[in-house]
Task: structure prediction
Amino acid sequence: MSLAPRWRKLLGDIRDGQGRLVMMVAAIAVGVFAVTAMSTGYTILKREIRRGYLATNPAAALLEVERLDDALVAGVRRQPGIIAAEASGRLRGRVEVRPDEWLPLLLFVTPELRTAQIATVELGAGRWPATPGEIVLERTALPVANGVVGGSITVQLPTGAPHALTITGAVHDASLAPAWQEQTVYGYVTPATIEFLGGDANLHTLKLTVRDPGGDRAGLERTSVGVAQWLAGEGHPSSEIRIPPYQHPHESQMTSVVRMLLVFSALTLVLGAVLTGTLTASLLAPQVRQIAVMKAVGAGSRQILALYATLVLGVGLAAVALGLPLGIAAGRALAANTAQLLNLELSSLAVPAWLYVVEVLAGVGIPLLAALVPIDAATHRPVRECLAEFGIDAPSRRPNAWLGRLPLLARDTALVLAVRNALRRRGRLLLTLGLLATAGALFMTSLNVKSAWQQNLVEATAERHFDAEIYLTHPQSRATALAAVRAVPGVRRIEPYSAESVAPERADGLNLVTTYPDGGHGSLRLQAVPLGSEFVAPHLLEGKWLSLPDADEVVLNEGALAMLPGVRVGAGIQLRVRGRVLGARVVGLIREHLTPASVYLTPATLERHTGTAGLTSGLRLSFERADADSVAASIAATERALAASGVKVALSISQIALGRALGGHLFILIFILLVMSLLMGAVGVLGLASAIATGVLERTREFAVLRAVGAQAATIQRSVIAEGVFVALLSVLVAVVVSVPLTAIVARVVGTASLGPALDVIVSGRALPIWLGIVVVAAAVASAIPAWRASRLTIREALAYQ
Amino acid sequence: MAEQNQPRSIPLISLRGVSKIYESAAGRVGALEDVDLEVGSGELVAIIGKSGSGKSTLINLLTGIDSPTAGQIRVAATEVHSLGQEALARWRGRSVGIVFQFFQLLPSLTVAENVMLPMDFCGTYPPRERRPRALGLLAELGIGDQADKLPTALSGGQQQRAAIARALANDPSLLVADEPTGNLDSRTAEDVMQLFAACARAGKTVVMATHERDLGRYFARSVTLADGRVVEPASARS
Ligand SMILES: Nc1ncnc2c1ncn2[C@@H]1O[C@H](COP(=O)(O)OP(=O)(O)O)[C@@H](O)[C@H]1O
Ligand SMILES: [Mg+2]
Result:
């Protein structure tokens, strides 16, 4: 069965249009690849992060109670809305990661690690602790603690001496961010181990699961408050109720970042589709006469439309065949990479069938829609018009006479011609500009955001002018502590510093917070810093910084403002700290980078409200020498001096260790943005090349006439290349303008993802010249081929051209 | 000369008050003005006139490639001026064969495939009969041995024969040609004219635009156009 002539004709067109068809396939494949990669990554991550989190059977609420016993827990289980209740504990201590260098330790205490029902962890290696001297660590905490399964680590609770514990195993806790990100070591122990370490082995934390935990928050609060009130009635008041958002601490950031990337990838596909449209137009440009002939011998417009639609359909399928598998592979790699950032175990890399279907439909359908525009136009052009070519196409608009009078152009007819030609076909110019400008805007945005992120890190460091923080086990004499440290050689400056966890005061007097199980995310901190502190350099957004020694005034950072609905500068605020209510007026708002939500006040105000006059719960220090070894040695010497004066230290942490936590894990995002912009750029340059090629084809006669009146081949070449470069330059202008709001949007998403304010909108000094270079060179190269072709045609050929 | 402008048999084509005005940047051009014309079945009619006199315009109106500004055009039972684009294409494919001055064979198709194209688009003959029919037509026109070559491999005369074969593919009752010999040497032109004459003898109506008066002997009738008007009455050859 031989092929019908019209399909043979299509095969001939495919042979003749190979270059353009390959460009189309490439452009669409790039878009399909990007969309598939992002949607695959998004789908897998979204599913797995939920699954992983829910698999731990997370507590919907946690209540801090003085002492819990079995009878009390059994009573709680009978309260309305409660499914299960379990007693557990959570203690802060420290762990020695190198000689004299300590990191925070978060110990989760469970009587029966094996049979715990709520907020469970999964044993990945080794075995559960059996004797008091044993501990299991979260798997991501092993490298942070410099420990191995079977080895031992030195652990100290605020109330005890350092003890060596054997690491019997490693667990995976899907509800925590990786230890390296938080620079905190997570351990899991039994009450017996706590006793061994010299800590309070009583269990204080009541973990609850409820019906519909992900449901409405008000209902969950009512249920939790109900339990707290019942406990109070039984003589066991709750000092804190924690209702963490029912999700992984990084889920919403991950979701918003990947969603943003998904939008950009969809944009890439749309750009690829637009390019398919322009390429189809240029594919059809030399076909007008043949289409007219086919119609003259009886072909209906619809038949010809179907013919070329089939061609684009085939192109789309080829592109999907290329882009889809690569995109899925890349999406899985993205998911795996991000899973590590989230401490997530990917139980399945499966991609749902509907996603494949959507991908194929989008990859084939969107370019087809874009191509239908020129196909429809070409097949509906009147036959007579196509058969009778009347010499050079007359421009329909008034010539832009002013162009010839521009001083730069006046001397060079080729340049005037180039600019005029670029402006002649407005539709095509806009498409090409759109393609190139979008790519350029995204490229500059990614470099801008990279600069902003680096700036963010610099600012975060600049906001902390101290080298180390020392937290005491409990508030102790400030005078003693300061005197002890002053004598330590190498200490340059010392300031008292106290931090407390607080919650907004509620009418029922309960202390209800949204802190995550790791105790950090979602918490609100109260920080007391002395007036005239040299260690903080507040970047004031509104109001003023603390100026009175003791005036019931507080200053918030942006994170705190976001956590306290309805509060603004000038308003009163009621906070619950150490079981007491602290009323104050908000006098200022500051911006801080990579710092949790914080409320600042003076030590005197804090002391008055908490009854801790003359005491401090911590110190901040700067040293003569700030290198890692000197800092570690100075901290050790300081701790010894404090111990000698009877001041008990819970934990010392250096800025160097903290800096590791701030790390560069957001660079993956910037890398993806860059790759995506380069993909878009490639699509844009293809678009430019095709636009120039089509223009040259349409102006074949014009070139012949030019040559006939004496233009040299080089002049024509220069004119065509100049046209391409002119369009490229225009696109850079547009890109610069678009990149500013785009940077602001990405900076906001990234800022939120880093638990801080939106990043500053920084225009990277390198972005513009780099992109300018890329796009101008690419444009020159892309127009060189059609330019060469245009100049090579003999006059006779060109005038006879049909 | 009693029967000026009158057809010799039942009129197949009838033009009534047909005008065509082109609006362009240069102004209004009256390409055809108030033309009445009837052509009978089986007639071989020449449209004669100088360049720019409106011949192509008339031919294009006849085939529905262009639409009149005013007037009615009927071919057999079809009111051509009232058809939409899709209907025109279908009608044209089945009822009209068109031959162009520049042959207009599709360069990527073989000669036989070019001939099969109208049958393909119009679905006229069953697929397996199309190639034999194309080969038969090519053989009748004396280029059976060129069937599987690409058009560019053929001489001008051969290409025009192939174009005529394509025009005959769907066995239309009307053949229309716009200066079909304009690009051929006089020997070849004579051959091609013989073919058109043979078609007319076989019962087809042939309307042909030409400015070569020396081919006049082939035509039963000629209609002369000047400045868009019929100036010289149709004349019988005899
Ligand atoms: N598309 C068009 N736009 C404007 N004028 C046209 C167009 N087509 C034909 N004409 C004008 O109409 C007149 C008749 O043209 P045409 O029918 O092509 O003549 P012929 O075929 O006899 O040479 C001429 O003056 C020509 O310039
Ligand atoms: Mg003509």
